[in-house]
Design a protein that fits this description.
Strand order of the largest sheet: 1-7-6-5
Number of strands: 7
CATH superfamily: CBS-domain
Oligomer: single chain
Low-confidence stretches: none
Structural class: alpha/beta
Distance between the termini: 32 Å
Organism: Streptomyces gamaensis
Keywords: CBS domain
CATH class: Alpha Beta
Number of helices: 7
Pfam family, one: CBS
Protein name: CBS domain-containing protein
Length: 140
C-alpha cells in the first residue's frame, strides 16, 4: 500500500507565523518552493502560505512585506494528512478541498514532508492523475 510518507517530498520547512512575508519570500526563493507551512508558537501547523498569497494579499494591496507576517495571511483551517494515510486518502483530501500542496504530519503532529502535484505524478498511475486534475482544476 502506497502511503503519504511514500509520496511526499521529505524535509519540508516551517515558517513561524511571526515571520515577515519578506523573509518568507526569501526562504521560498532559497528553497526553490512555492509554498511554506506556517507554524504556531508550539510548532504546530496553523496555515500555509504560497508565493501567490504574498503577491495577491500583500504586495498587490500595497501592504509592506517587511512588516506583514505569515500569520496575517493564514485564514481558515489548514488541511494536512497523516504520514500513514494511504494514497486514496491523499487524493481525496486534495480533491475535496481543491488543493495542490498538502503538508504531511507524523504521529507527534510534526511536519515531516509536503505532497505536491509533482509528487503525485511520480508515484500514482495515469488514471489517478487524470482524476486529480479533473477534480482540482475543473470549473466549479
Amino acid at each position: 500500500m502506497t502511503t503519504a510518507k511514500d509520496i511526499m517530498h521529505p524535509g519540508a520547512h516551517w515558517i513561524p507565523k511571526t515571520e515577515t512575508l519578506e523573509h518568507a519570500a526569501m526562504r521560498m526563493r532559497d528553497l526553490h518552493v512555492g509554498a511554506l507551512p506556517v507554524s504556531d508558537e508550539d510548532e504546530r501547523l496553523c496555515g500555509i502560505i504560497t508565493d501567490r498569497d504574498i503577491v495577491i494579499k500583500c504586495v498587490a494591496e500595497g501592504r509592506d512585506a517587511s512588516t506583514c507576517t505569515a500569520g496575517d495571511l493564514c485564514v481558515g483551517t489548514p488541511r494536512w494528512i497523516s504520514a500513514n494515510a494511504d494514497a486514496d486518502a491523499v487524493l481525496s483530501e486534495m480533491e475535496t478541498h481543491r488543493i495542490r500542496r498538502l503538508p504531511v504530519i507524523d504521529e507527534n503532529k510534526r511536519l515531516v514532508g509536503m505532497i505536491s502535484e509533482a509528487d503525485l505524478a511520480k508515484h500514482l498511475d495515469e488514471h489517478q492523475i487524470a482524476e486529480f486534475a479533473q477534480k482540482v482544476y475543473a470549473a466549479s
